[in-house]
Amino acid sequence: MPPAWRHDLPGALVRGETVDLHSTVHVDPFDPNGGPPQVTANLSSIGGPDHVTLSPVGDGDYLLETRLDVAAVVGPHEIIVRLKQEVADVARFFDFT
What we know:
Elements: E1 5-7, E2 18-27, E3 38-42, E4 52-53, E5 55-58, E6 61-69, E7 80-87, E8 90-96
């Protein structure tokens, strides 16, 4: 079963606008006894960087704070949030979209 997640990312953006993204993403780790999870976001589909590290704020919540110029064409786009965690000396990854 994949880890659970939830977010408050915006549902719509306007091409050409500069946006300050301040969003909280909650992820459940693969294993509560594993290493600390690392959470990143790929914002390239909307004109942002392809690797933004989210800051842990406690209780499985991670903060995404970045500024970008929206350069996406009209239509739906995926923002990929990646969870990485070391469990028993093995790196485990899961991508949320």
